[in-house]
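ok so for the tutorial part 2 we go from a plain amino acid sequence to predicted structure tokens. step 1 is just haveing the sequence, like this:
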Amino acid sequence: MAPTGNQRAATKTANIAELESMLSESPSSDRACLKVAQILNVRRNEVALMRIDKGSLRFLYPPELRSAGVLPLSGSAVAARTASTRAPLLSNAFMRVKHAALFEAVKVGAEAEDRSMEQLPIQKIMSAPVAVSDGNVMGVVQVSRKGLDPAVAGVDFTNEDLKQLEQMAEILARMPFMKEGAEF
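step 2 — the prediction. this is what the tokens look like for a chain of 184 residues:
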């Protein structure tokens, strides 16, 4: 029997608690982002985490993008807008949104199941600021669904999914790897 909406919500809440419990373990950005992927039921290559560094956003995750360059905070990228406006975003029609597809071209994902998804375009996206309680933005977390078209990419993100991403962003803000001066 399929789980009800309440059962799915309870499971996601428990998983968010697991992410929070990771704080005491000082996890790597990789491990924390894999938990985000698991909670939101996306592939590992559909999660991105960036930290503000010298006026730009630098990738912490996925590891393949750490050396791929930076996004200027003054730019038009969704992540830059998320950081500068401190506002989350949800788009289930992302291919219609003008965006730089530069980072979509970087091969990400060593797992066999990811190989077929390596360079597919982002069809759906959620973006949330990673900020401490005083509102100071430290970075941005993004979750996407990739595919040749929106139907193949998977189910639409919901407002509930975005709320959960915002909860996870608050937890990520307290992780050691988000602190200024931490290694990339």
